[in-house]
Fold these 2 entries.
Entry 1:
Amino acid sequence: MTKISVSQIEYVDVIVIGGGIAGIAIAEFLARHSHLSIKVLDSAPQLGTFASGKLEGWFHTGALYSGNEDAQTFINCVNSLEDLINLYTPYFTQKCNIAQAEIKPNFFTPQVIPTSKGWFNDRLVYLIHPGASAPEITLSALKSDSLYLEIQRNRVLGRLETAYGQQHNWNQNGNCRAPIYAQIEAYEGLNCSLRYSTETIDNLCRRFDQSYGLEKSNYEIIRTLDCSMNTSTIMKDLVASALAQGVTFETGIIIDKLLIERYGQIQIKSLLCQTQHGFTKRLKARLFIFAVGKGFEAFLSDLQMRAKLKRSRSAMVVAQPALIDTNFVRMSTKRRFHFNHFVHNCEIGTEKFVYSMLADSSYTNDNLINQGDEDEVDIEPILESAERYFGKDQLYSRNLFSYECVKTEFISQEEQKRRYSYWIESNPKSNYLCVLPGKFSFFPTVAFQAYQRIKTLISFDECAPKSTFEPDAKVKQEAEKLIANSYPMKIIAEAIDI
Ligand SMILES: Cc1cc2nc3c(=O)[nH]c(=O)nc-3n(C[C@H](O)[C@H](O)[C@H](O)COP(=O)(O)OP(=O)(O)OC[C@H]3O[C@@H](n4cnc5c(N)ncnc54)[C@H](O)[C@@H]3O)c2cc1C
């Protein structure tokens, strides 16, 4: 008897391929504002197992980019914060804990509101900016280095003051409004009200300078709005909201083929898939959204993307228990002097852990990775800096682990796009959209901007979302199961055999 092959056929309005922060945030936002039927597919057994689960957990509000010559990325961070406060804080009350706070009468700036189990930790990030007598300048033979450092320092102080100090009132007639480009660029001559140091930070700077045989040099220490974020909590809450609006998730599903109509503008007709139980499935939709991170490689030619994919690897060191209780970032004009330390809390079973994440916040360009090169990224510079800040004894008394992760970006010839913070690409008459965020932190803006683009691709009735969201126990439990714990947590749990 001949075996009959059966495949299930399923139709929804929108299919989102990829369940990292990009896919999750887009599906959630679309579901909250429409009655469209939405399905999220992921090839992994759980969502959030790739870049969105392996990151350092640094919520960027612009500090890292405040010294860049070009202000665009800084502006993107500031705008994303505005989107977070307008679109997420009121809806995810208690959880999305960054809001406008009145720091003087009728003057509001964004602040992290302390709360247990919120998305953001109220332990802020101190930015250490070296001065002219710091090791990187003293040890450099180039006169231009100190000049460049001075220019960068002024930009950092000025831009941060404009956005988060005493210059811009974020409350404009009851709405949250970020400063605009012209304000950000008019930073010259401002006195920065955000200068703030602690004994811990002073000691770190002193020990670092002494490790080079120097007396403590002059540093600018700035208290920023950057903080560490609980990425798996954010994803779980977004998934819970999506589930409550009827979004379905299917994990462990492999896309074998895109069936494409190639006459005129490319249209995807169906996805041919293998489910986790080995069945074949044909998925049809009005719109397909690709948010597959490093998985874009497989779809580039079918989707006729014009941009080139660039992948780079970055290393990270986990130290448990944490080395100190303070988040800090050294921003330098010299790459090898970049260093950052973030503190994270986690609960594994009934036990609570505090651990440090150490990195140098720059990426190792690796053109060979697409050809299967397996060389390790060098973690020695991170360890060397950590020895200088914390001392060898303290550092090596910890449980230390390193891992690396791939960062995926699109590279375009266009100047505007090269300064990208997130990528959203579609053709007007096609039925698909490609999305790639450069940072997890941009999820509010990525979801909102993708939503605006979706409205140009398919027609649907928008609906007013509920004002706040409180998940029921069943939805919460389902979301918990769908999202993987963050990778550092997994490493710690395995090491201590929980
Ligand atoms: C080392 C490192 C540190 C970082 N630190 C920070 C930080 O501190 N703060 C910050 O804001 N950002 C940080 N980032 C950037 C951030 O991690 C990424 O920008 C973000 O997580 C990308 O999200 P994504 O959803 O696009 O990709 P991913 O999280 O990789 O998600 C893609 C999903 O698509 C799925 N997928 C892939 N192919 C297929 C397929 N064919 N079919 C179905 N599913 C598929 C994958 O399983 C995955 O779940 C860091 C990045 C790296 C590499």
Note: The first helix runs from residue 21 to 32.
Entry 2:
Amino acid sequence: MIKILSKSIREYKKYAILAPIFVILEVIFEVLIPFIMSIMLDKGISLGNNKLVIEIGILMLVMAVLSLICGILSGKFASIASAGFAKNLRHDLYEKIQTYSFKNIDDFSTASLVTRMTTDVTNVQLSFQMIIRIVVRAPFMLIFAFIMAMIINWQIGLIFLIAIPFLGVTLFVLMSRSFKPFSKLFKQYDVINRDVEENLIGIRTVKSFVKEKDEYNKFANDSSILKNFASKAEQVLAWNMPIVQFTVYACLIALAYLGASNIIKGYNVSGKTLFMTTGELTSYFSYVMQILMSLMMISNIFVMITMSLTSARRIVEVLQVSPDITNPNNPIYDVKNGDIDFEKVNFKYNLNAQMFNLNDINVHIKSGMVVGIIGGTGSGKSSFVQLIPRLYDTTIGNVKVGGEDVRNYDIETLRNSVAYVLQKNILFTGTIRDNLKWGKEDATDEDLIRVTKQASAYDFIMDFPGGFDYDLGQGGVNVSGGQKQRLCIARALLKNPKILILDDSTSAVDTKTDANIRSSLRETAPDVTKIIISQRVSSVEDVDLILVFDDGKIIAQGKHDELIEICPIYKEIAELQTKGSDNEGGSTDEENK
Ligand SMILES: Nc1ncnc2c1ncn2[C@@H]1O[C@H](COP(=O)(O)OP(=O)(O)OP(=O)(O)O)[C@@H](O)[C@H]1O
Ligand SMILES: [Mg+2]
């Protein structure tokens, strides 16, 4: 895991190395200060040597300033390194997600990918910043201070033999008890993030179903669970400080007692009686504090690491996925024509599922044909067409475009030749022109006019202030459903595709405009194979071939008149709709604007 994450440090490596180096310098100065202070007390103040006091005083001041500078520098380097690391990490995640297939995205869910790119990266960034400073600081402080203490008087140092193990064991117990609540806490963060994201993305639906109160209650419930886990975790950790303080004071009392008796009565070193000086005792006090504080810091690092471990794991999960749809070794860069062949195709989204979502599909479509697809909701229409631009791969069987298996093409080439207007299509923040140019970056104004006319979008675009430069707002909120669909069709046409798939793309367009779009496509793009999925028989009546889907199977295929004869389901749909159309009227989406 560390190996994968550390790849994202890259150009910030030098800062990540400089930060701990300056921390070590800072620690060295901090540890030396009590030592020279003891010299000042014993040799200077006690003996009345003012010159020495001033000299050492200046030295101490210089060291304090140096230690401060090192501290500031290490903090600066650590924050540059961690912010840079987070930037690279987000970049790497984003780049990786772009290579994901639809299936990869289904596996994670969009909300979770967003959380991973934001909250989780921030967690890892913060702990990385702490770690490169404190992970080095605490152990170095511990070791240096311990050595200095031992140099002054190793016998009193024996206090540490009791204090350090005591503190180590208690802190370890505390840490291990806080692991569980912390990992639960982070799972709950996921839940909250998911709910908030869903609510905000679907805020219009929430409002139209008057579900604000339910959503509010859901959130209140989520956050009270979060509060419980957080307080459980914090309650365990709350013992941290009192235990450290207890140990520190116990050590100070023991030190005061032993130190005082060593000063007055002296102590034995290989037969000789030595006396501890006041200066030595004073600096000893500082070392006791430094040693125990660094132990506490070490325990805090463990907490920090536990907290960010979950986040780090979630990030690595995203980075480790190998996209399941990739380019072949010797890809084909040319799609000959718009022929489409499905040969004994079976498909399921989830490999572990028992049932296939598409069963035994055999279809042959000649280049330039207009094909209509009709069938109930959930019958597999979208699943069928998604296999053509290779948004998913078949589970069994082959899908061919232009006579070649789709898996042999360069993916970009294939997807540029197969323009697929998705059922749940979206526009992006920006002007109409920006959005259309997604289809072709170097499109000229003539291109834009041509395709928008084909998609019956030109007239309403011209009615907007600014025409092509009209701002669509976030996600295209400034246009109606039917206008949005027509813009999406125009965007797809700009690719000059060999195959055009319209997945229920005119559902929000009135029947007259729908017919206009179809006839203009037939006239202006006669060589393009067109696949039109629709709920309306009227949209597919005049096509060359109609496929009737039911429960993941093609139950009949043929022309309208044939199907009326041979397919009872088709006949039933057709009859129901002709009856209904009498009262449908000609309401247009323009009126709903
Ligand atoms: N991403 C997915 N993951 C798992 N199952 C899916 C996914 N998308 C669709 N399905 C399932 O596959 C089946 C066929 O769905 P599909 O979207 O192809 O239907 P459809 O005919 O396009 O329906 P509609 O007219 O409502 O768009 C359904 O049972 C659906 O639950
Ligand atoms: Mg569908």
Note: The first helix runs from residue 2 to 6.
